[in-house]
Amino acid sequence: MTDAHNNDAHGGELAVAEPIPDPGLPEHQWRPTDVDPAKEKRAERQVATLFGLSALSTIAFLVAYFTLDIGDNWHVIGGFGASTMALGVFLGLALLCIGVGVIHWARKLMADHELVELRHPARSSDEDREVAVQAITDGITESGIGRRPLIRNSLLGAVGLLGLPAVVLLRDLGPLPGKKLYHTIWGSGTKDAPMRIVRDGIWTPILASDLEIGDLVNCQPDALHNPERYDIDPSEVEGVNLQIHKSKASLILLRMDPNDIKPGKDANGESRANWTVDGIVAYSKICTHVGCPISLNERTTHHLLCPCHQSTFDLADSGKVVFGPAGRPLPQLPITVDDEGYLVAQSDFDEPVGPSFWERDYYER
Amino acid sequence: MRLLNRSAGRLSRHRRGPIAGLLVLVCGLLLTGGLYAALAPAQADSDQDEAALIKEGRELFLVGCAFCHGQNGEGVLTQGGSQYGPALTDVGAAAVDFQVGTGRMPMAQPGAQAPRKEVVYTEEEIAALSAYVASLGTGPAIPDKELYSTEGMSEKEIDELVVRGGQIFLANCTACHNFEGSGGAMPRGGYAPKIRGVDPKHIYEAMLTGPQSMDTFSDGNIPPEDKKAVIAYLNELDEAPSYSGFTLGSLGPVSEGIIAWVFGVGLLVGFAVWIAAHTTRSSKKKDEAAA
Amino acid sequence: MSVDVNPDISKVATTNGTTPATPKGGKAAGAIATWADERLGLGTALKKNIRKVFPDHWSFMLGEIALWSFVVVLLTGVFLTLWFDPSMTEVQYDGAYDPLRGVHMSSAYASALDISFDVRGGLLMRQMHHWGAMIFIASMMIHMLRVYLTGAFRKPRELNWIIGCLLLLLGTIEGFTGYSLPDDLLSGTGVRAADGFMKASPVIGSYMSFFLFGGEFPGDAIIPRFYAMHILLIPGLLLALVAAHMLLLVYHKHTQWPGPGRTEQNVVGYPMLPVYAAKAGGFFFIVFGVIAVMGGLFSINAVWKYGPYDPSKVTAGSQPDWYMGWPDGLLRIIPPWETHIWGITLSWNVMIPILVMPPLMLMILMALPFIESWITGDKREHHLLQRPRNAPTRTAIMAALMTFYGLSWAAGGNDIIAIKLHLSINQITYFLRAAVFIGPVIAFIITRRWCISLQRHDEERLLHGYESGVLVRSPEGGYAEKHLPLPEAKAYTLTARDDDPTPETPEEIEASGATGRGLRLRRLRARLATVFFADNVRKPTAEELHEAQHHAEHELHELEAQIAAGPNRHGPAEH
User: Fold this and answer.
1) C497-519: per-residue pLDDT in tens?
2) B129: domain range?
3) Are residues B197 and B120 in the same domain?
4) A105: which chain C residues are within 8 Å (Cβ-Cβ)?
5) Does domain A180-362 match CATH 2.102.10.10?
6) How does DSSP assign A65-101, residue by residue?
7) Distance between CA atoms of C343 and C349, rounded to whole angstroms?
8) What is the Cβ-side half-sphere exposure of residue C158, based on CA atoms within 13 angstroms?
9) pLDDT: is B127 or C550 the higher one?
């Protein structure tokens, strides 16, 4: 056992003889390009050729830029858009050839004697440390801050307080959440104009008889297309507001065999039996995990799978989570039919839709 | 440890050329294939009226489908009471045309899902099977060409249809089939298959009938014009050039990440190894003063 | 190859100034240089650094990949800012990509389409920017792994390690804000998930969400705000930290592998001018070139196929970019833990993978140098690198961390794995739930034992020479392989390493007089140090080597004699 005791108390160098002494830097060996002028010239030519290739590639890039069209009439080569590929390849070649040329030059032709440079310790010398410490001490003493706790403390207090404007100035970044997360536009239906369910992107209302068992319909509230019918200002459902409503109100309808539906209970413990229409169930399309829209339905098992993190909900069982990280079942929308037979919402969801948040359960309907 | 006993067969190894084995294999394959092509039973080839079609369909059905689906398409249950082959009484001709026409049926082995594979029946046979199954009950018929084809439409009309189809595709289809129709995962080993390069008729039928775990998109869900729009959009995806280069499977960030690591970082580390590698040395000497 | 036993130390430079200060090259260069020097004192700065020595090894160039890809990303990014419109105002598309004509979208998305379809070279620059960013982060990771596994993070380089970890973090955030800018369906889904993460934060969650988005999700403020972060705030921080990182590197000088002529007190390599400048500069062009080729040939983030972001639409295979894959993976495999008490919702299923694990991993990463130096008690400066096998516990710790990272990363792609390998996505999740705990333990054990066995192999070679491939059969029938002694340079390299410090014995701890918490800590530290260095093979002493060589020579003579006396005595006996 070597007699090395490198205790943390010491931290000095090991005082043990190395088993094999340092043979020193190996003798320099020449490269063929150093000793053979023919090879040296060849390497030079290779480097110059590479630089030349680079220049040619650059010119090819310029030609491609001005001759290959994009826009309304893409030039196509072999099923690929020509412009991007050509510009990329020629630019890449131009750069690569310079790089390879320079490296080849360095490896074959530049002097490759290894040099030795001495290191210096990372720390400053003891004298420097002393002088520095002295300078700082002098400075602090002359400032008198050590002897003047009143100044020091009041300074700290004042500077500390200055942090507050920086924070407060950010207050108007956005409004407070208020009750916004608890409601969706589905609640804007009235007795005379209950909120119709319409096909997303097609915007036509849906009769119960339109759907067969197994149909999954991606839906939106009619108000997004027909705001006047529900006494809503059109600007409320345009632009950014439209996106906001979609992020909460998106809906899926699924028609299944009514016998498959397991009876469920709402938040007050009452039955959900009248929330469906002839086997047609309606659920929020927004996952309760972190809010991705879901419409992957496994028809045979009526399990709805979210593509983001694979939360799976059983649509025949009040949207219960059967797999995956979602913590809460998918909110169900109670639906019925209006006078003309179109599917409509009875009311808003009976809970906030979308991802969980701290104060979510404070809400009472 | 030596895995190959190089000295054994040394004599015969030198007799045969290096590609001899490969040639034998190729010859064997050609022979087998040729024999099959020459001696395989001739295909039925006749134009028949409806009843004869249904009769032919029944014959084919009994041979190829009844084992799982029952002699009258009533379905077969396992001993435990779960479904072995579903009932086909109300699936309609469209479903059969789709399943058999894409080779999914007959299913080669039980599993989470029937994969698309080589089509076993001829077009006439598929028509016969479809007619027979249609006769068992109700269900959607095979769609007419005008329902899914954009033939005869002006370019402007097609462009508008493509735009609309894209938006409907994104709202209804990409969640399972991915933004480029490259497919996606479903629970317990199921999957939404790749839908590119598929016959437009089959796409229409798949939407209409909801094969296996797929939801149905009946005409009351997505009206026929909008189904055509989706198909037009898929055609556009197929026909459009790849503006941005090789698409790497169009699976999104996963394949992009793999390429960044394997190709990008791999190539660059390879270059780094070259840059710092020892270079050739010569045993010759050189006069330092002349250096 | 002869060895110089009396090295000529007159060539050992104490400064780098072996070339004259006046540059050759004519009066013009001289005049400009003089003008500049009279104002900037360049001579003083240059004399030390222009011939600064850098050791040469491929593993030292991984950080360069990061540096140069960062430059490429900056350059291509500037190009993109000339056309990109960071606004969420709704517009109707009227550009060259027909399948989206007339569709309502944000101005940001429309401008991304314009760059791709109406600006020549625009799509190339977009793709170069994105590939470059991915390579930037990937190369930072492998650079970090290299630094850790070779022990280059030890004193005096701990601060540089911390800066590096921060660079990795900032790079990740920069990437996320960057790919969210086009406001397409895929990245928008990621932003939606980020909103969900924020909402899940305790107490202030919904407030943070409303403040960041300027209202309810999605609002119209997030893209402009991400833009400011992406082109101003984070690049500023990145540049500052990169500068500090480089400054420290220059001050400390680069580490080097042990070998003949290389000690803790010197650096052996090539001078900055011309060799290192050429190699580094050339590598810049190579990195740039590879990224350009990738940008031209490989499609990345084809935003026109995703369509504009719409909260009611989604694509299968929704993943963040690879560097956010591991938290996404944890988010997928975590069980549905959510607590509802006193009207409060605590979403453990979101908090643990997103709010706890990433900061925790970052802190563990940053603490690694300090943990190791506390356990080993090693306060020396280190400039010679260690082979990973010579620090088995350290290497095994990283193997365990990498396994955890890798399994979480795989979990993030579980749906792609499911369809490509025909597996059940549910089974993959169940497997990974267990694997992220068991895998790192297995990896730790296997790696540690592997390193130790490699150390033993090295010792074998030192003491008994290397296997020459010549087998000899003795008259009795036994086989022996002829071993030849290692060349001296190689043997020296294998022994040019520090012996492990000995942990404190219990008696020493007693004797130190520490009490209470201090005492417990010292005992713990001694135990950990014992484990840390356990089973390490110590270097042979000079006597042991001598003895072994003697023995080996003896064996060699015997073998040679057998060969000379045997049937192959006329054949190739000399190797």
Assistant:
1) 888 888 888 888 888 877 888 88
2) 50-136
3) no
4) 278
5) yes
6) HHHS--TTS--EETTEEHHHHHHHHHHHHHHHHHHHH
7) 18
8) 16
9) B127
Structural domain spans, chain C: 53-258+266-370
Residue C472: what pLDDT?
81
| Nearest chain C CA: its distance from A135 CA (Å) | 24
Residue C174 is inside which H or E element, if any? helix C158-180
Cα gap A256→C91, rounded to integer Å: 40
Nearest CA to B242 among C234, C305, C107, A53? C305
Q: How far apart are CA C429 and CA C439, in angstroms?
A: 14
Element at A320 (helix H, strand E): strand A320-323
Q: Which of B212, B233, B273, B282 to probe by mutation at the A interface, max A CB count within 10 Å?
A: B282
> Is C82 a residue whose pLDDT tops 60?
yes
Contacts of C410 in chain B (CB under 8 A): none
Please report, in angstroms and rounded to a whole number, the separation of the first and last CA atoms in chain A.
Answer: 78
Q: Does A361 touch chain C (CB under 8 A)?
A: yes
Alpha helices in C307-356, H assignment, sequence order: 325-333, 348-350
Which residues between 53 and 82 in chain A have a beta carbon less than 8 angstroms from any beta carbon of chain B? 74, 76, 79-81
Let me know if residue B84 belongs to a domain: yes
Please indicate, yes or no, if residue B174 is contained in any of the structural domains. Answer: yes
**Nearest by Cα to C291 from C61, C66, C113, C112:** C66
Radius of gyration in angstroms for the set of CA atoms belonging to chain A, rounded to a whole number:
38
> Are C106 and C91 within 8 A, CB to CB?
yes
Would you say residue B41 lies in a domain?
Answer: no
* A79: exposed, middle or buried (Cβ count in 10 Å: 0-12, 13-18, 19+): exposed
From chain A, the residues in CB contact with C210 under 8 A are 174-177
For the cut 80, the answer to whether the pLDDT of residue A324 exceeds it is yes
Topology (CATH) of C53-258+266-370: Cytochrome Bc1 Complex; Chain C (1.20.810)
CA torsion B213→B214→B216→B221, rounded to 10°? 140
Q: What digits encode the pLDDT tens for the residues A250-303?
A: 999 999 999 999 988 887 888 999 999 999 999 999 999 999 999 899 999 999
B126 and B59 assigned to the same domain: yes
Does B275 contact C279 at a Cβ distance shorter than 8 Å? Answer: yes
Assign 3-state DSSP to chain B and report helix, strand, coil percentages, each to 5.
55, 5, 45
Taking 60 as the threshold, does the pLDDT of residue C208 lie above it? yes
Q: Is residue B200 part of a domain?
A: yes
Reported as a pLDDT band with limits 50, 70 and 90, residue A331 is very high
Q: What is the CATH number of the domain that holds B193?
A: 1.10.760.10
Tell me whether B285 touches chain C (CB under 8 Å): no
Task: Please count the other Cβ atoms lying within 10 Å of the Cβ belonging to residue C4.
Answer: 13
Nearest-angstrom CA–CA distance, B162 and B84: 40
User: Where along chain A do the CATH 2.102.10.10 domains lie?
Assistant: 180-362
- What digits encode the pLDDT tens for the residues B255-273? 999 999 999 999 999 999 9
Backbone torsions φ then ψ of C228, nearest 5 degrees:
-60, -40
Q: Please list every residue in chain A whose beta carbon sits closer than 8 Å to the beta carbon of residue C117.
A: 70-71
Number of domains observed in the structure of chain B: 2
Asked whether the beta carbons of residue B264 and residue C419 sit closer than 8 angstroms, the reply is: no
How many Å apart are CA B192 and CA B181, to the nearest integer?
9
Q: How many residues does chain B have?
A: 291
CA C253, CA C250: separation in Å to the nearest integer?
Answer: 5
pLDDT, tens only, A112-125 = 889 999 998 888 99
Nearest-Cα distance to chain C for A141, in Å, is 31
Task: Write out residues 53-82 of B within 8 Å (CB-CB) of C.
Answer: none
Contact A89, A20 (CB under 8 A): no
- Report the pLDDT value the prediction gives residue B6, as an integer from 0 to 100: 55
Using the Cβ of C131 and the Cβ atoms of chain B, whether some distance falls under 8 Å is answered with yes
Q: How far is C95 from chain A (nearest CA, A)?
A: 8
Nearest to B215 by CA among A278, A294, A204: A294
